[in-house]
Design goal:
heterodimer; A: about 500 residues; alpha+beta; D-Maltodextrin-Binding Protein, domain 2; Dipeptide-binding Protein, domain 3; 2 domains; five-stranded mixed beta sheet; globular; B: about 325 residues; mainly alpha; about 0% strand
Amino acid sequence: MKKSLLFLLVLTVFFSFCFGARAGGDLKFAVQVEPAGFDPNLATAFGSHRLLEHVYEGLLSFNENMDIVPGLAESFEVPEPTKIVFHLRKNVLFHDGTPFTAEDVLYTFKRIQDPAFASPAASYYTEVSSITAPDPYTVVFTLKVPMVNSLLLNFAGVNSAIVCKKTVESGVNMQLQTNGTGPFKLKEYAAGNYIALQKNERYYVPGLPLLDSLTFVVIPEEISRSSALRNADVQMAQIMEPLSLNTFPAQRFVTYRVSTLPYLLLGINNAAKPFDNVLVRRALSYAINREELVEMVAFGEGTVTGPLNPSLKTWALLPEAFDEYSYNPEKAKALLKEAGYPNGFSFEAVTYAQYSLDKIGEAIQAQLALVGIQMKVDVAEFGIFVKRWREIDFQTFLSLNGGSTEPDIQFYRTFKSDGATNKFNFKNAKVDELLEKGRQALDLEERVEIYRALQRLLVEENPFLFLYSPNNLYVSLPEVKGFVPMSNQSLIMLKKTWLDK
Amino acid sequence: MIATYIFGRVLSAVPTILILTFIVFLAIHLVPGDYIDIMLGTQNYLTDEQLSGLYKQYGLDKPFVVQYGIWLKNLITFNFGTSLRTGQKVSAMILEKLPVTFELAFFALFFSLVFGIPLGITSAVKRNRFGDYVVRVLGLIGLSAPTFWIGAILIVAVSGLFQDYTLFGFVSFQKDMAKNLQILLIPSLTLGLMLAAQIMRMARSSMLDVLSQEYVKVAKAKGVSTWKVIYRHALKNAMIPVITTAGIQFGYLMGGTILIENMFALPGLGRLLLQSVNQRDYPVIQGVVLFTGVFIVLMNILVDILYTLIDPRIDLR
């Protein structure tokens, strides 16, 4: 009797899994920004990426847990430390019906590596010496340096998505037209209004996507976006201000939150006085109450982060592991005294009015005042901010940096003495050495050791201050099922989303 | 005759518009941070070589004056260039957004005249009486309350009171007339309220002016009823400054009503301009400014022609 009940239960669960998710339906999703250009190998705009990830696909992809999973390559192997062999899926069609083969992969990467094309992805593949296709469904990447681990992630990025050779060679403007292999195809783009995607009936994963259509409705203002959802003009919306969540009662709406990889930082010019003194940088770290920033500015919708996001459990040392991350104004004062600034000093932080950065500036200003440091916050227009950042024309700045699940990607460009985004005038031979070692090591345990040592060193040196990672927030009507937000801000799980009505 | 007049006016406007486009071109290039800076943001991993490749690709490596020259040269052949950001033709982008802004401006002006003129006249006729004070206070509120504030209040109020009212998800007039009008009602009302205050004040003061004229007094003395005096004699003369205001306002509205379009997610010229300035999409900025400049000039000419219809004493020659 018991056994048969159990069997029945298992059967019910099994069937609800199989038939619970119903295909069909049209989802309207309100977003803040719209795309700027459709060429996956060129687009840098956030809005473009959130659209193109449904239309195009890379050789690899991420699952819900941010693990690397097969994409257009059904598997890959690493026969030697400088070689990656991708085995491509057969029977994949581009949206126009053209079969996908190794030709398209070779063509895409030639395009990315062409200096005249100026793809933002070009810099990922500078250490790739050759790409060959021994047969139509195999592609081999040969590297100059053994750095397979940090390279793999790039194959899952939108900028490395595979384009159709035939389409590009026909001369169409790829910024205006699309032809990908993804679960949805572009149906209509009404600039400034909406982007309509339609189910790709010939998608290679049977049964996916579940939705018949997916429309991103562009509504820039938060108050308008929330109103649109409350009145069911859309079924789902992206929420930027945590405070807006109060207007969505839990009985009538579903809230999705995920801690993201990008992190807010107080960037420091390590060559500018008084920040050339490590004691001063360390004093700042003790004087800033990160928990309070999360509570006051993000209303709790954020996670205090060290050099690596706490969600990367294999790699990250938690903020609690560092004394420098504890709030200790007395210690900060003592360090300032030791550094020769017993009465504090004054400095300027440049920032821009996005991601609540101006509010973070005000909060830090108040915290630093308690230890005698006067901070002035200059909220600049974004273009002006970028120029000052690029020219290292600042004492400190407040900004949001993109994060990664791979420590090499997170750290190398940022902290290497000649790193592409090391705008901190930070030069440290020990850090450089660890970065090279970590990039080339293949053994996971060895790499974990290297990057733990690096995290400790970075917190000691404090080339800049990691503050917190904001949560990404979405709200939907209860009929929306199966959506999972991802820490890299991707919306690709919309292919498994369905409507229960 | 009138054709010669229009031709002359258009011709004389050409240098003004050229100067306008040059100043805008200069201003946007003087602002720190260019298109490439903003496109790459602080995630800029490119080498110097790749960067200079990008500048070259977008034609931004040339000196500013040369860039302006190229733009002018293309303009002669009615080539407005392509957007750096989206690769679309600027002319197509403007034409796509134009109907939205036109409709919004039209209805806003409609509301402002419907509310503004009667209130202004009433206020003038009932000068310094209770009705006048009410209208004047309303006018003051309309003038001083920022549109984004009125807009936000209306969004919250309408979406709270009428759960089924569709405020967002613009559709064109041709596609779905009812939905189009429903969606545009609140934004154009928001915009119209602010304009109504201006129209009202203009109508009131010009009406007061006319009412103090000798011929009005004579008419009154002859025993013509107050409203007849206003309707038959005063109104036409009082309308000239009102029409001027309305015409100029319409021109400005066509330049895009940035705040309202952004707030109500309407895909119009104002949002296009805002985005283009934020992204330093130079050809689009130039295109929208040129278009607006030309439109305002045309509006002014139209207003002048309207004068002759209202007041035969005005002669355009």
